[in-house]
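As the work plan foresaw, our protein records have gained a C-alpha cell line. A representative record is set out beneath this paragraph:
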Amino acid sequence: MTTEHALDVRGVCNAPKGVGTYFAKRPAVLTESLSGLLLLGDDCGTSASAEQPSILGLTPSGCSEVVTVLRSGRGVLRNASRPLILAYSGGMGVMRSVLLAISENRWMRARGPKLWFVKRAARRFMPGEEFADMLRAADELAPLGIDTVFTRLGENVTDASEATYVRHHYLDVLDQIKARGMRCEPSIKLTQLGLDLDREQCYSNLKALAERAHKHGNFLWIDMEQSSYVDVTLELTRRVKAEFPRAGVCLQAYLYRTMGDLEALIAQGIGVRLVKGAYKEPPEIAFPKKADVDEHFFKLAVVMLEGLARKNGFRPVFGTHDVPLIARIRAHAERAGLAARDVEVHMLYGIQRGEQVRLVKDGADVRVLVAYGSFWFAWYVRRLAERPANVWFVVRSMFAR
C-alpha cells in the first residue's frame, strides 16, 4: 500500500512557485531551487546562480520516493517502487537550460547512459546502437518514399586512434550503402574526426570521406557544433567543397551571425541544412527567445529558396519538426513559383512520422536522420532540449513495465 505524507517544500527548498513532480530519498535531501527547477539527491550538486545552473549529478540510485509539488507550495510524498530521476517545474526555457547543462556535464555523460529508463526512452529517437539497426530503419522508411541521413554518434574525441576508427567506419559504411543501392547520406561532426586534436589531421579524415562520397555519387553533410566551432567548421567545409562539390554544412538559426554565413555559402554553391540550434549559447551571440529563433529561421529559409536561382549547386535543406513553420516555408515557395520538391525537409527518426508521410504525399522531398552508436547520451539530451515536453517520455519510461 502506498503511504502519503503532506510536505511543505517552501521551507526546505525555497520553491514557492514549484509545480511538477520531484523525486527524493527523504524530505531532507530537497536541496536547491534554480528558477523553478529542483535538484534532488545526496549528490545532486548546487549552483550559486539561478541564471547559470550547474547540474553535477543525478539523484542516487537508492532514490525511492516521489514529491508532487502543488501550486500552493505544498506537496505529497509517495513511496515509489523504482529508482527515479528528477523532473521539472517552471517554463520550458528553464527546462531547456537544464537539459543543455546536463548534456555538457562529464559526470552525467558517463552515468546517464547506464540508467535503464533513459535507455528505454532514447529508443524513441534511435533504432539501436549498431549500424545494422540503422540499415533496418532505413529499409523500413524507403517504401514510404522517405530517404535517410545517417550519423554514428560521438563528439570531441580525445584520442587520435578513435578519430581514425571513425574515418574507417564511415568509409566502410559508404561502400556498403553504395553496394545496397540505398539513398542514404552521411553526416559527421568534425570533433569526431579529431578537430580538437589536430586540425589538419581532421581535414585529412574529412577529405577521405568526401572523396569516397563523391566517388559513390553520395552527398556528405558536415554537422555544426557549439558556436566556438563555427569558423573552423566553415573553413574546412569550404576547403573540402573546392575539391569535392557534393558537400554541405549545417547552420543554426539561433545564432545572430547566421544570415551572413548563409549568404556566403549560397554564393559558393555549398549546400546548407538549416536547424534551429541545440546548444547552450549566451544571449550576446544567440536569440534567447523561441519566437525570435522561429522568425529568424523563416527569414533564412526565404533567402535559401532564393538561392536556388543561382543554379550553382546550392542545396537548401530545412531541418525542423515545426509543422507550422514548414507550412509557412512551403507556402512561400509556392508563391515564388517553386516546385514542391524544392523544399527539402529533414526530420529525426521517431518524430512526426505521420507528418513525414504527409509531406511526401504532398510532393516534398523528405529525409530522416537515423542515428546510432554507443555515445548517444549528450545527443539525446540535446534532442530533449529542442522540445522539452519530450522529457515526459523519460518520466513515463520510469513506470513502464
In short: Confidence is low (pLDDT under 50) at residues 1-92. The longest helix spans residues 160-180. Residues 4-121+387-399 form one domain.
